[in-house]
């Protein structure tokens, strides 16, 4: 949550994989909205981030469990457009470096606490705290997240997948 050439990425619940069980979609969209509202209230820039299942949340969505989250960037290159947007919102020089990786140490040995942007990290922690507090204040959190009911193993819509680990689920070379 503190990539050196950060973005304020919000996982976009509207971009879940088409085979995501429908119970997970409304709550995931609500979590996306919570994060967007925090960034808007704070007058901070934000970007939608694909919710494509390539991270730790993937197995949860695959089982119909609501998910949401934040992302400050990985091995993507920051565009000039994104840099300019961040400069405009945060002030000249705060937009980072166009044409450079958002996090050159993403999933590398150098990925450590010394490799973070403290400003971005602090804002993301504040956004996460806001979302958690908002969720905690819900009188009926389950009903809010799952308006059509929670997923159950007896529900025919849920896939019957078994994973021993996140690594097995993704089978990507860098895990």
TrEMBL record:
It comes from the Eukaryota. Gene3D superfamilies: Zn peptidases. SUPFAM superfamilies: Zn-dependent exopeptidases. InterPro entries: Peptidase_M28. Coiled coil: none annotated. Residues 44-130 form the Peptidase M28 domain. This is Peptidase M28 domain-containing protein. It comes from Adineta steineri. The lineage of its organism: Eukaryota, Metazoa, Spiralia, Gnathifera, Rotifera.
